Amino acid sequence: MISFQLKRTLRALTTNYVRQFANQPPTTSIISNDTEQPIELPPYTEEQRRLILDVINGNGIDQLLRYDITKARANKLHNWKARNGPLRELSDILYVEGFGLKVATKFYKSLLEPAPSTQSSVKTQKAPRTAPFITPALDEQQRQGIMSSVGVRIGVTSVSWARLEIPDTKHSPCVLSHWQHHEINDKKLHLAELVRRCLYVAHQIPQADCYIMENPQMAQPSSNPGSIDQQNVNIQKAQVTSMLSYALMARIAPGESRTNLFYLRRFLTARLFNHLVGTERVSSEDTILGMLRTYYNMEEQLDHEEQINLHNQVQFPSNLRTMYSKAERYQRELLSQAFLLNLAFLRLVVLQDPASIACVSRSSKKLPSHQELE
């Protein structure tokens, strides 16, 4: 009997509580799960309220991304408007997934600021990823002081080099001052004889502010090292590279801490001038012939009303053009590689040409236009 009366009492209390809760007026505040307190947006004037709602309801995803909002939240906001219609109150955005009080306040603040310009959006774009082009690194002060450089191409039995001079103004092309190919020998030499010939070659290489070589291939263990003759060839090439590197670095004045010898990353020149098919290099002679035919390499130069930026181009003196045309085909290829190695260093490192850097950067999809470069 007592148990039955207790159940009736509890049921009556529960019914009265539900009725009392149902008769309370509904609240318009949104409750936070963390604080159990109503969360409210900052106070806005009627003009600010209309401005915020007009921007949100009248713009698509691309336009909203100009403000302080992520692409994911912009997509969620767009989908919510498609299902529920435009926002009528500022607090409606809190019903959209991903928009809390802090995010909404920050977003509304950016909407009330002046519309971002195209220039500011360009500045926020990520720069293309570019790995270091040379080893060792080159500091800014030394880079600005470089006015001449020599590219040295070392083969198994020969050495080729090309010297370029940088003009004072960007309206003049660089000048090719020296271009030479020297045969060492076509057979394996004794180390003493090889040293003597390398010293002679080093004496022939002209003076410059810096010297450029291609980064040599690192020695790796192999289960198939090849024939003894091939091993001797690789050893002799490494010996020539080491001797010439030491001889050129010895040209630094006593007490000077900066280096004058830099190694350009392998295959970088071939990528820049589109001479790489897979991992194989193709002939670079056509590229050189195309440069020789430019108007500033002709005897009678054309008159131009507007000055053109020729800072990253090269002028070939007539005697060097004649030497190149009379050389053997394999010699022309080696001369071309030495020249393009030097030109790649100037464009990528010294002049920092945007089009050249974009061409060899991993994330670049297209070259910038002439208007963008200017």
From TrEMBL:
Any one Gene Ontology molecular-function term assigned to this protein's record: DNA polymerase processivity factor activity
Leader sequence residues: none
GO BP of this protein: transcription elongation by mitochondrial RNA polymerase
Organism superkingdom: Eukaryota
Record's GO cellular component terms: mitochondrial nucleoid
Protein name (record): Transcription elongation factor, mitochondrial
Originating gene: Dvir\GJ11782
